[in-house]
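Pair request: fold both.
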Amino acid sequence: MRLKRRIRQIPGWIRALFRYIKRKKYMYFPKEKKDMHVNIIIASKEKSWILGKFASCVLDELQRMGVKAAISDRFDSNADINHFFTPNITDKADRNTTFMITHVDTALKLEQIKNAVSKGAVGICMSKETRDRLIANGVLANRVCYINPAQDGQIKPRKVILGITHRVYKDNRKRETMLIDIFKQVNTELFKLVIMGAGWEDVISALSKLGLEVEYYPEFDKEKYNELMVNLDFYCYFGFDEGSMGYLDAVAAGVGTIVTPQGYHLDTKAEITYSVNTVEDVVDALNEIGAKREQSIQFARTWTWNAYALKHLELWKYLLQAEPMESILKTRGLYIDGIYSLLLDNIRDSIPFTTLVGRSIDSAD
């Protein structure tokens, strides 16, 4: 108690200073910075190649975000950030310098990276695997991260094409009405159904109301049949009447199959991709296929040039201490590359010194 009274006699700002020194090895002091000037460095000989595309796409996205940015072929000491899309890092590199790491396949490149990092620069790999290998080879974890590259977004994933090549019988021997129950439980936006064979009008009407795209050929056309078969993703057959001749053509074409395990289907020795007996079996198969296609759609939606540039911008704001950390890290949980792949310098524990002043010694230890 006597010691505590003596401690309380010490001025509050001094006690706060001691608590600060005791607890904090690194402090992040965000500064008000309205404008950021980014110098994107690309060698003249690289501008017409893939690295030139990276540079121009990042420039376009930064300018759309209102960031002052320009492309040059040399380090600019007046810029807030110098970012190299070239392996040739100059001796002027500093802690506000970043550089792209395309690949590391020689000891010389590893030494170049270590040399740049020793000057304070941050290397940005294209993948987690390369970043991890660099750290394992001695590159500082707080000076190397990764940002996955972008896709142009001009190529869209097409629908999964399913094919059926038989006509409808009055006794429902082909079990065609199963399709209605199946597509009530499947995301119809992911699939397109191609049918060749007579008598499908009623089923197609019901499927169209469910939102499924159907391409229909009521008459058999051998030339068109051959063209369709090789362009299918999966051939479908749900009957239990010995087998489908279309299945043999599908196997010959090398397309996937969603068919019943019966008759001469089993004698081909070709593995059925999805062996089905019931509506539930087919629904499970299509939902599994659909989930894989959803991955392509999600990839195209997230691996964009906008996201690529934004992840660089978050990193640069951190290096410049241009914003509070809670603002920079507001995208936490949306992705794991970018700033989230960099070992931060004890940021999580930092508390501004001013917030410690005036707090009781009991609550601040």
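--- second member of the pair ---
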Amino acid sequence: MRKAGTIRWKRLEITGGFLLLAAVLFYFDTQKLLLQAFAGAVMHELVHLVAKNLLVGRV
């Protein structure tokens, strides 16, 4: 069942609250630290996927 204000793509679910929080943080981020933190988080999760594939795991 789809909830109002929710974006779903495959197994990823993004709520309106997350988008609002991200917009507020981006607006007040004058030093562009949010973009760097997001890039670091994406790289971290990609390493998890690489390790899982090397160890023949399942998600």
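Observation on the second member. The chain has a mean pLDDT of 87.
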